[in-house]
Amino acid sequence: MSLADIVKAAGAVAKRYAPREEIFAHGTPSDDGVCLVLQGTVEVFHPGASGTTRAIAVHSPGSYFGLSALLGIPRFETAKSANAECKVLFLREEDFLRYLREDKSFLSQIFRNTLQRLRTIPEHLIRKPDRVLQIDEMFGPGAAEKFAKIRQQNLVTLEYLNKMRNKYVSPGKKLFDRENDVDTDVYLLVEGTIEQYWKDEALVIALEPGAMFGFLKSADNQGHVLTARAGSTTAKLIALDDDILTKISHLDERLAYSIFQNMVLTIAIVESEMIHPTEI
After folding, report:
1. CB-based contact 41:86 (threshold 8 Å)
2. Helices assigned H by DSSP within the chain
């Protein structure tokens, strides 16, 4: 059963848009939720100088857009259907939780869909960002505070896992690097800081406790695109994999949504800051 079939079975109603019809505009409220393309294609634009717009992406079925909704901030782009009719599902937190309760397969399917989206971004399109990534600069005022709440919710994971999955990384030491094709886990940072670097050792982003990372994999899910290294103090982490993420999500609905937010926001960061404008 496809993701579209599962959300339909759970009672979701997608919206249809005529060719070139506006889906939402820059600066409008995002309380109708994050968007998932079910049919057709969607073009996304950023506002430019003197009222002009700049096309930044074309989203195909299975792609998310309108990700400002995950942070509760106004839309920072404009979205329109392309040259044919499209069908879009708006997914709010309450919708996510309702679908989760009504169909247990929804969680596995949406996780699989989202992870596949992350892991099929062609590695040759990923480039070093022009700056060290800062959440408020990327998503606007208030975004960092929302990310902090997501990190806090992530730490609920500790209630469901035993200490056997703990890992410790000494200051300045690597957790994983691009050449390590054995490590395919996702990690939850519990204590300390983790810094992620590009292949030329340029800092990309510094992570704080509660951050979940490691979703961005190299080709064929072998190893990681970025290197991860402990900061100035020992980092304590929990190693996770896809099966564990799904199992603990079935135990805690709010944690399930938090993990979903992590996955989708990772897509947002990569697509907005680390790839050239192209079809995504």
Report:
1. yes
2. 3-9, 93-102, 105-119, 135-139, 143-154, 242-251, 253-273
Residues forming a β-bridge with 224: 217
pLDDT (tens digit per residue) in 18-43: 999 999 998 899 888 889 898 999 99
CATH topology match: 3-101 vs 123-279: yes
| pLDDT tens for each residue of 165-210 | 789 999 999 998 766 656 668 899 999 999 999 988 899 999 999 9
CA–CA separation, 69 and 100 (whole Å)? 19
CA distance 149 to 158: 16
For the chain, give every domain's residue range: 3-101, 123-279
Instruction: Classify 167 as helix, strand or coil.
Output: strand
Phi and psi (nearest 5°) for 160?
Answer: -110, -5
Looking at per-residue pLDDT, the higher value among 7 and 228 belongs to: 228
> Which CATH fold topology does 123-279 show?
Jelly Rolls (2.60.120)
Q: Which CATH class is domain 3-101?
A: mainly beta
Crossing angle, helix 105-119 and helix 93-102, to 10 degrees? 120
Widest distance between CA atoms in the chain: 57
